[in-house]
Design a protein that fits this description.
binds protoporphyrin IX containing FE; five-stranded mixed sheet; three-stranded antiparallel sheet; Cytochrome p450; globular; about 400 residues; alpha+beta; about 45% helix; single chain
Length: about 400
Protein backbone atom coordinates (compact mmCIF):
# COMPACT_ATOMS: atom_id res chain seq x y z
CA UNK A 1 0.00 0.00 0.00
CA UNK A 2 2.92 2.41 0.61
CA UNK A 3 3.73 2.44 -3.13
CA UNK A 4 0.10 3.17 -4.00
CA UNK A 5 -0.05 6.04 -1.52
CA UNK A 6 3.25 7.48 -2.79
CA UNK A 7 1.83 7.43 -6.32
CA UNK A 8 -1.43 9.05 -5.22
CA UNK A 9 0.43 11.80 -3.34
CA UNK A 10 2.33 12.52 -6.51
CA UNK A 11 -0.27 12.31 -9.25
CA UNK A 12 -3.72 12.40 -7.64
CA UNK A 13 -3.69 13.77 -4.09
CA UNK A 14 -7.50 14.01 -4.05
CA UNK A 15 -8.59 10.77 -5.61
CA UNK A 16 -12.03 9.29 -6.21
CA UNK A 17 -12.47 5.56 -5.70
CA UNK A 18 -15.67 4.00 -6.91
CA UNK A 19 -17.32 1.18 -5.10
CA UNK A 20 -19.46 -1.40 -6.76
CA UNK A 21 -22.95 0.04 -7.03
CA UNK A 22 -21.85 3.59 -7.89
CA UNK A 23 -21.05 5.04 -4.49
CA UNK A 24 -17.45 5.85 -3.59
CA UNK A 25 -15.12 8.06 -1.58
CA UNK A 26 -12.35 10.64 -1.90
CA UNK A 27 -8.90 9.67 -0.69
CA UNK A 28 -6.78 12.52 0.70
CA UNK A 29 -3.15 11.47 0.86
CA UNK A 30 -0.98 14.60 1.31
CA UNK A 31 -0.06 15.77 4.80
CA UNK A 32 -1.15 19.41 4.41
CA UNK A 33 -4.48 18.54 2.81
CA UNK A 34 -5.26 16.15 5.66
CA UNK A 35 -4.51 18.94 8.19
CA UNK A 36 -6.79 21.35 6.36
CA UNK A 37 -9.72 18.93 6.39
CA UNK A 38 -9.18 18.05 10.06
CA UNK A 39 -9.31 21.74 11.00
CA UNK A 40 -12.49 22.45 9.07
CA UNK A 41 -15.35 20.67 10.85
CA UNK A 42 -17.85 23.14 9.45
CA UNK A 43 -17.29 21.95 5.89
CA UNK A 44 -16.21 18.40 6.70
CA UNK A 45 -18.58 16.85 9.22
CA UNK A 46 -18.10 13.83 11.47
CA UNK A 47 -21.84 13.42 11.99
CA UNK A 48 -22.20 10.95 9.15
CA UNK A 49 -19.65 8.40 10.22
CA UNK A 50 -15.98 8.37 11.14
CA UNK A 51 -14.58 5.50 9.10
CA UNK A 52 -15.02 3.66 5.84
CA UNK A 53 -16.80 0.76 7.46
CA UNK A 54 -19.85 2.69 8.59
CA UNK A 55 -22.02 4.45 6.09
CA UNK A 56 -24.91 6.84 5.98
CA UNK A 57 -28.27 5.71 7.18
CA UNK A 58 -26.73 3.51 9.81
CA UNK A 59 -25.79 6.30 12.15
CA UNK A 60 -28.62 5.71 14.58
CA UNK A 61 -28.12 7.13 18.05
CA UNK A 62 -27.45 3.60 19.25
CA UNK A 63 -24.08 3.92 17.56
CA UNK A 64 -23.08 7.56 17.99
CA UNK A 65 -20.35 8.79 20.30
CA UNK A 66 -18.68 12.20 20.39
CA UNK A 67 -16.38 10.88 17.67
CA UNK A 68 -19.38 11.01 15.33
CA UNK A 69 -20.56 14.48 16.43
CA UNK A 70 -19.68 18.08 15.53
CA UNK A 71 -19.63 21.01 17.96
CA UNK A 72 -21.53 22.06 20.00
CA UNK A 73 -22.80 18.57 20.95
CA UNK A 74 -19.30 17.19 20.67
CA UNK A 75 -17.90 19.95 22.89
CA UNK A 76 -20.26 19.36 25.80
CA UNK A 77 -19.55 15.62 25.88
CA UNK A 78 -15.79 15.94 25.49
CA UNK A 79 -15.69 18.50 28.33
CA UNK A 80 -16.83 15.86 30.83
CA UNK A 81 -13.68 13.76 30.42
CA UNK A 82 -11.08 16.12 28.96
CA UNK A 83 -9.43 17.01 32.29
CA UNK A 84 -8.72 13.36 33.10
CA UNK A 85 -6.55 13.02 29.99
CA UNK A 86 -4.77 16.40 30.11
CA UNK A 87 -0.95 16.44 30.32
CA UNK A 88 -1.16 17.40 33.98
CA UNK A 89 -3.54 14.53 34.85
CA UNK A 90 -1.53 12.06 32.79
CA UNK A 91 1.68 12.97 34.63
CA UNK A 92 0.03 11.69 37.81
CA UNK A 93 -0.57 8.28 36.20
CA UNK A 94 3.11 7.57 35.55
CA UNK A 95 3.86 5.62 38.72
CA UNK A 96 1.06 3.07 38.31
CA UNK A 97 1.71 2.81 34.55
CA UNK A 98 5.28 1.88 35.48
CA UNK A 99 4.16 -0.63 38.10
CA UNK A 100 1.82 -2.35 35.66
CA UNK A 101 4.50 -2.36 32.93
CA UNK A 102 7.19 -3.75 35.23
CA UNK A 103 4.95 -6.62 36.28
CA UNK A 104 4.21 -7.56 32.67
CA UNK A 105 7.88 -7.22 31.64
CA UNK A 106 8.89 -9.51 34.50
CA UNK A 107 6.21 -12.09 33.69
CA UNK A 108 6.95 -12.28 29.97
CA UNK A 109 10.73 -12.23 30.16
CA UNK A 110 10.60 -15.39 32.24
CA UNK A 111 9.37 -17.09 29.09
CA UNK A 112 12.02 -17.59 26.45
CA UNK A 113 9.56 -17.36 23.58
CA UNK A 114 6.14 -15.74 23.49
CA UNK A 115 3.58 -13.98 21.32
CA UNK A 116 4.50 -10.34 21.85
CA UNK A 117 1.04 -9.11 20.80
CA UNK A 118 -1.11 -11.17 23.11
CA UNK A 119 1.14 -11.83 26.03
CA UNK A 120 2.85 -8.46 26.27
CA UNK A 121 1.41 -5.52 24.33
CA UNK A 122 -2.26 -6.39 24.88
CA UNK A 123 -1.78 -6.62 28.62
CA UNK A 124 -0.83 -3.03 29.34
CA UNK A 125 -3.24 -0.45 27.81
CA UNK A 126 -6.45 -2.00 29.18
CA UNK A 127 -4.99 -2.43 32.67
CA UNK A 128 -3.92 1.22 32.72
CA UNK A 129 -7.23 2.30 31.33
CA UNK A 130 -9.27 0.23 33.81
CA UNK A 131 -7.42 1.95 36.62
CA UNK A 132 -8.18 5.44 35.28
CA UNK A 133 -11.81 4.56 34.59
CA UNK A 134 -12.36 2.90 37.96
CA UNK A 135 -13.19 -0.51 36.51
CA UNK A 136 -12.50 -3.34 38.98
CA UNK A 137 -9.15 -4.95 38.26
CA UNK A 138 -10.58 -8.46 38.13
CA UNK A 139 -12.68 -7.44 35.11
CA UNK A 140 -9.80 -6.32 32.89
CA UNK A 141 -9.32 -9.71 31.18
CA UNK A 142 -12.99 -9.59 30.22
CA UNK A 143 -12.58 -6.07 28.83
CA UNK A 144 -9.49 -7.07 26.84
CA UNK A 145 -11.48 -9.90 25.24
CA UNK A 146 -14.44 -7.65 24.40
CA UNK A 147 -12.14 -4.93 23.08
CA UNK A 148 -10.45 -7.48 20.81
CA UNK A 149 -13.77 -8.70 19.51
CA UNK A 150 -14.92 -5.17 18.75
CA UNK A 151 -11.77 -3.97 17.05
CA UNK A 152 -11.11 -7.24 15.26
CA UNK A 153 -14.35 -6.70 13.43
CA UNK A 154 -12.74 -5.18 10.36
CA UNK A 155 -10.40 -8.14 9.95
CA UNK A 156 -12.29 -10.72 7.89
CA UNK A 157 -10.51 -13.62 9.52
CA UNK A 158 -11.69 -12.49 12.91
CA UNK A 159 -15.18 -11.63 11.70
CA UNK A 160 -15.64 -15.21 10.62
CA UNK A 161 -15.48 -16.39 14.19
CA UNK A 162 -17.69 -13.69 15.68
CA UNK A 163 -21.35 -14.55 15.50
CA UNK A 164 -24.05 -12.25 14.35
CA UNK A 165 -26.30 -11.50 17.28
CA UNK A 166 -30.07 -11.12 17.24
CA UNK A 167 -29.76 -8.85 20.24
CA UNK A 168 -27.33 -6.43 18.68
CA UNK A 169 -29.63 -6.18 15.69
CA UNK A 170 -32.17 -4.80 18.14
CA UNK A 171 -29.60 -2.13 19.00
CA UNK A 172 -28.88 -1.65 15.29
CA UNK A 173 -25.22 -1.86 16.06
CA UNK A 174 -23.63 -1.57 12.67
CA UNK A 175 -20.65 -1.97 12.20
CA UNK A 176 -20.12 -3.91 15.38
CA UNK A 177 -21.98 -6.96 14.24
CA UNK A 178 -21.04 -8.97 17.24
CA UNK A 179 -22.33 -9.50 20.74
CA UNK A 180 -19.35 -7.83 22.42
CA UNK A 181 -20.79 -4.33 22.05
CA UNK A 182 -23.93 -5.39 23.83
CA UNK A 183 -21.90 -6.93 26.64
CA UNK A 184 -19.92 -3.71 26.97
CA UNK A 185 -23.15 -1.69 27.16
CA UNK A 186 -24.62 -3.94 29.83
CA UNK A 187 -21.43 -3.98 31.82
CA UNK A 188 -21.12 -0.18 31.54
CA UNK A 189 -24.64 0.36 32.80
CA UNK A 190 -24.03 -1.99 35.70
CA UNK A 191 -20.92 0.00 36.60
CA UNK A 192 -22.82 3.24 36.28
CA UNK A 193 -25.43 2.14 38.82
CA UNK A 194 -22.70 0.92 41.10
CA UNK A 195 -20.90 4.26 40.90
CA UNK A 196 -24.01 6.07 42.03
CA UNK A 197 -23.89 4.16 45.30
CA UNK A 198 -20.18 4.52 45.89
CA UNK A 199 -18.71 7.66 44.35
CA UNK A 200 -14.92 7.68 43.93
CA UNK A 201 -12.23 9.69 42.13
CA UNK A 202 -12.35 8.16 38.68
CA UNK A 203 -13.73 8.71 35.19
CA UNK A 204 -16.73 6.43 35.67
CA UNK A 205 -17.86 8.39 38.70
CA UNK A 206 -17.52 11.53 36.64
CA UNK A 207 -19.64 10.07 33.82
CA UNK A 208 -22.24 8.83 36.30
CA UNK A 209 -22.56 12.32 37.82
CA UNK A 210 -22.04 14.30 34.61
CA UNK A 211 -24.06 17.43 34.15
CA UNK A 212 -24.69 18.26 30.49
CA UNK A 213 -26.58 21.54 30.28
CA UNK A 214 -28.47 20.84 33.46
CA UNK A 215 -29.22 17.14 32.95
CA UNK A 216 -27.38 13.88 33.38
CA UNK A 217 -26.21 11.76 30.46
CA UNK A 218 -28.90 9.83 28.65
CA UNK A 219 -28.39 6.08 28.51
CA UNK A 220 -27.30 6.08 24.88
CA UNK A 221 -24.84 8.93 25.52
CA UNK A 222 -23.34 7.04 28.42
CA UNK A 223 -23.25 3.73 26.47
CA UNK A 224 -21.41 5.29 23.55
CA UNK A 225 -18.96 7.24 25.67
CA UNK A 226 -18.10 4.07 27.58
CA UNK A 227 -17.76 2.04 24.39
CA UNK A 228 -15.65 4.73 22.73
CA UNK A 229 -13.30 4.99 25.70
CA UNK A 230 -12.96 1.21 25.95
CA UNK A 231 -12.15 0.74 22.26
CA UNK A 232 -10.20 3.91 21.39
CA UNK A 233 -7.09 3.34 23.45
CA UNK A 234 -6.87 -0.42 23.54
CA UNK A 235 -5.92 -1.83 20.14
CA UNK A 236 -4.28 1.47 19.10
CA UNK A 237 -1.76 1.74 21.93
CA UNK A 238 -1.08 -1.99 21.74
CA UNK A 239 -0.28 -1.71 18.03
CA UNK A 240 2.06 1.24 18.60
CA UNK A 241 4.00 -0.92 21.07
CA UNK A 242 4.05 -3.93 18.72
CA UNK A 243 5.16 -1.93 15.66
CA UNK A 244 7.76 -0.18 17.81
CA UNK A 245 9.32 -3.45 18.95
CA UNK A 246 9.19 -4.89 15.44
CA UNK A 247 10.89 -1.79 14.02
CA UNK A 248 13.60 -1.90 16.68
CA UNK A 249 14.27 -5.62 16.18
CA UNK A 250 14.69 -4.90 12.48
CA UNK A 251 16.93 -1.87 13.18
CA UNK A 252 19.41 -2.99 15.87
CA UNK A 253 21.54 0.13 15.23
CA UNK A 254 18.61 2.18 16.58
CA UNK A 255 18.48 0.04 19.74
CA UNK A 256 22.18 0.78 20.30
CA UNK A 257 21.60 4.51 19.79
CA UNK A 258 18.86 4.46 22.42
CA UNK A 259 20.85 2.36 24.85
CA UNK A 260 23.79 4.77 24.53
CA UNK A 261 21.71 7.90 24.88
CA UNK A 262 18.53 7.60 26.92
CA UNK A 263 17.65 11.24 26.19
CA UNK A 264 16.58 10.06 22.72
CA UNK A 265 13.53 8.34 24.25
CA UNK A 266 11.29 11.36 23.70
CA UNK A 267 11.97 11.50 19.96
CA UNK A 268 11.93 7.70 19.75
CA UNK A 269 8.35 7.62 21.06
CA UNK A 270 7.26 10.09 18.37
CA UNK A 271 9.05 8.08 15.68
CA UNK A 272 7.42 4.86 16.86
CA UNK A 273 4.05 6.62 16.66
CA UNK A 274 4.76 7.92 13.14
CA UNK A 275 6.10 4.55 12.02
CA UNK A 276 3.21 2.58 13.53
CA UNK A 277 0.27 4.83 12.55
CA UNK A 278 -2.11 2.35 14.28
CA UNK A 279 -5.17 4.03 12.75
CA UNK A 280 -4.82 4.10 8.98
CA UNK A 281 -7.62 6.55 8.34
CA UNK A 282 -10.52 8.50 9.72
CA UNK A 283 -13.37 9.79 7.62
CA UNK A 284 -15.39 12.96 7.17
CA UNK A 285 -18.35 13.86 4.93
CA UNK A 286 -18.51 17.00 2.77
CA UNK A 287 -21.15 19.43 4.05
CA UNK A 288 -21.06 22.04 1.29
CA UNK A 289 -19.53 21.78 -2.21
CA UNK A 290 -15.82 22.56 -2.17
CA UNK A 291 -12.93 22.41 -4.65
CA UNK A 292 -9.62 20.76 -3.77
CA UNK A 293 -6.70 20.40 -6.19
CA UNK A 294 -9.11 21.01 -9.06
CA UNK A 295 -11.52 18.26 -7.94
CA UNK A 296 -15.12 19.14 -7.15
CA UNK A 297 -16.21 17.58 -3.88
CA UNK A 298 -19.97 17.63 -3.45
CA UNK A 299 -22.08 17.78 -0.32
CA UNK A 300 -22.58 14.22 0.91
CA UNK A 301 -19.32 12.87 -0.54
CA UNK A 302 -17.18 10.81 1.81
CA UNK A 303 -13.64 12.00 2.43
CA UNK A 304 -11.04 9.58 3.76
CA UNK A 305 -7.97 11.02 5.46
CA UNK A 306 -5.12 8.54 5.07
CA UNK A 307 -2.89 9.25 8.09
CA UNK A 308 -0.61 6.39 7.03
CA UNK A 309 0.10 8.31 3.81
CA UNK A 310 0.46 11.74 5.43
CA UNK A 311 2.99 10.22 7.84
CA UNK A 312 5.16 9.18 4.88
CA UNK A 313 4.74 12.43 2.92
CA UNK A 314 8.21 13.14 1.53
CA UNK A 315 7.48 16.91 1.42
CA UNK A 316 7.21 16.92 5.22
CA UNK A 317 9.39 14.04 6.44
CA UNK A 318 12.86 13.79 4.90
CA UNK A 319 13.58 10.17 4.02
CA UNK A 320 10.17 9.06 5.33
CA UNK A 321 10.87 5.32 5.04
CA UNK A 322 13.88 5.56 7.32
CA UNK A 323 13.16 4.66 10.96
CA UNK A 324 15.11 7.23 12.96
CA UNK A 325 14.73 7.35 16.75
CA UNK A 326 16.26 10.83 16.73
CA UNK A 327 13.91 12.29 14.10
CA UNK A 328 13.05 15.93 14.85
CA UNK A 329 10.85 17.69 14.02
CA UNK A 330 8.27 14.93 13.82
CA UNK A 331 4.79 16.43 13.65
CA UNK A 332 3.07 13.18 12.67
CA UNK A 333 -0.65 12.76 12.11
CA UNK A 334 -1.01 9.61 14.21
CA UNK A 335 -3.40 11.25 16.73
CA UNK A 336 -5.14 13.49 14.22
CA UNK A 337 -2.88 16.40 15.26
CA UNK A 338 -5.39 19.27 14.89
CA UNK A 339 -9.10 19.97 15.07
CA UNK A 340 -11.82 19.28 17.60
CA UNK A 341 -11.40 15.49 17.53
CA UNK A 342 -7.67 15.53 18.27
CA UNK A 343 -7.08 12.28 20.15
CA UNK A 344 -8.24 12.56 23.74
CA UNK A 345 -5.77 9.89 24.80
CA UNK A 346 -2.69 11.24 23.00
CA UNK A 347 -0.79 12.11 26.20
CA UNK A 348 -1.79 8.89 27.89
CA UNK A 349 -0.71 6.79 24.90
CA UNK A 350 2.62 8.65 24.78
CA UNK A 351 3.18 7.99 28.46
CA UNK A 352 2.43 4.27 28.10
CA UNK A 353 4.71 3.89 25.08
CA UNK A 354 7.56 5.78 26.75
CA UNK A 355 7.34 3.74 29.94
CA UNK A 356 7.13 0.45 28.02
CA UNK A 357 10.23 1.23 25.98
CA UNK A 358 12.12 2.54 29.00
CA UNK A 359 11.42 -0.72 30.81
CA UNK A 360 12.20 -2.89 27.77
CA UNK A 361 15.34 -1.00 26.73
CA UNK A 362 17.87 -3.08 28.71
CA UNK A 363 16.58 -6.26 27.03
CA UNK A 364 15.76 -5.14 23.49
CA UNK A 365 19.11 -6.14 21.94
CA UNK A 366 18.33 -9.72 23.03
CA UNK A 367 14.95 -9.81 21.26
CA UNK A 368 14.60 -11.76 18.02
CA UNK A 369 11.66 -12.53 15.81
CA UNK A 370 10.88 -16.23 16.21
CA UNK A 371 8.72 -16.29 13.10
CA UNK A 372 7.00 -14.03 10.64
CA UNK A 373 4.61 -11.48 12.18
CA UNK A 374 1.02 -12.04 11.00
CA UNK A 375 -0.58 -8.80 9.80
CA UNK A 376 -4.22 -7.85 10.26
CA UNK A 377 -6.29 -7.48 7.14
CA UNK A 378 -8.08 -4.21 7.77
CA UNK A 379 -8.41 -0.82 6.13
CA UNK A 380 -8.79 0.86 9.52
CA UNK A 381 -6.36 -0.71 11.97
CA UNK A 382 -2.71 -0.96 11.01
CA UNK A 383 -2.30 -4.11 12.97
CA UNK A 384 -0.12 -7.09 13.73
CA UNK A 385 -2.14 -9.95 15.13
CA UNK A 386 0.63 -12.30 16.09
CA UNK A 387 4.37 -11.72 16.54
CA UNK A 388 6.45 -14.52 18.04
CA UNK A 389 9.49 -13.14 19.83
CA UNK A 390 12.31 -14.98 21.55
CA UNK A 391 14.74 -13.60 24.07
CA UNK A 392 18.27 -14.86 23.54
CA UNK A 393 20.96 -14.86 26.21
CA UNK A 394 23.66 -12.17 26.14
C1 LIG B 1 -9.57 10.28 18.75
C2 LIG B 1 -5.66 7.82 17.34
C3 LIG B 1 -4.91 6.32 21.91
C4 LIG B 1 -9.25 8.06 23.09
C5 LIG B 1 -8.51 9.84 18.00
C6 LIG B 1 -8.21 10.26 16.66
C7 LIG B 1 -7.12 9.56 16.26
C8 LIG B 1 -6.72 8.70 17.36
C9 LIG B 1 -6.44 9.62 14.90
C10 LIG B 1 -8.95 11.34 15.83
C11 LIG B 1 -10.29 10.88 15.30
C12 LIG B 1 -10.88 11.81 14.27
O1 LIG B 1 -10.20 12.72 13.78
O2 LIG B 1 -12.06 11.63 13.89
C13 LIG B 1 -5.15 7.17 18.46
C14 LIG B 1 -3.93 6.39 18.47
C15 LIG B 1 -3.71 5.98 19.75
C16 LIG B 1 -4.80 6.50 20.55
C17 LIG B 1 -3.09 6.08 17.23
C18 LIG B 1 -2.59 5.16 20.33
C19 LIG B 1 -1.37 5.13 19.86
C20 LIG B 1 -6.01 6.69 22.65
C21 LIG B 1 -6.18 6.41 24.05
C22 LIG B 1 -7.42 6.85 24.37
C23 LIG B 1 -8.01 7.47 23.19
C24 LIG B 1 -5.17 5.74 24.99
C25 LIG B 1 -8.02 6.75 25.74
C26 LIG B 1 -8.67 7.63 26.34
C27 LIG B 1 -9.71 8.78 22.00
C28 LIG B 1 -11.01 9.43 21.97
C29 LIG B 1 -11.11 10.07 20.72
C30 LIG B 1 -9.87 9.81 20.02
C31 LIG B 1 -12.04 9.41 23.08
C32 LIG B 1 -12.27 10.90 20.20
C33 LIG B 1 -12.04 12.33 20.51
C34 LIG B 1 -13.12 13.24 19.98
O3 LIG B 1 -13.99 12.81 19.20
O4 LIG B 1 -13.10 14.39 20.39
N1 LIG B 1 -7.58 8.91 18.42
N2 LIG B 1 -5.66 7.20 19.73
N3 LIG B 1 -7.11 7.35 22.16
N4 LIG B 1 -9.05 9.02 20.83
FE1 LIG B 1 -7.29 8.21 20.31
Amino acid sequence: PHETFALLRQVSPVHWTRWKGGDGYWSITRYNDILNVLKDWKRFTSERGANLENWDGDQSIARRSMLEMDPPRHTSLRKIVSMDFSPRAVARYESFVRDITKTIVEQTLKKREFDFVDQFAAQIPMRVFARIMGVPEEDTEKLIAWGDELMGNTDPEVTEVTMYSEESEKYRLYPFRNPAALKVFEYGRWLRRHKWDEPRQDVLTKLAHADVEGRSLMDWEFDNMFLLLITAGHETTRQAIVHGVEALIRHPDQIRRLQNDASLMQTAVEEILRWATPILHFRRTVKEDVELHGKKLRAGDKVVLWFISGNRDEEIFPDPFYFDVGRAPNEHLTFGKVGVHYCLGAYLARLEIRVVFEELLPYLHRFELAGKPVRMRSNFTHGIRFMPVKVVTD
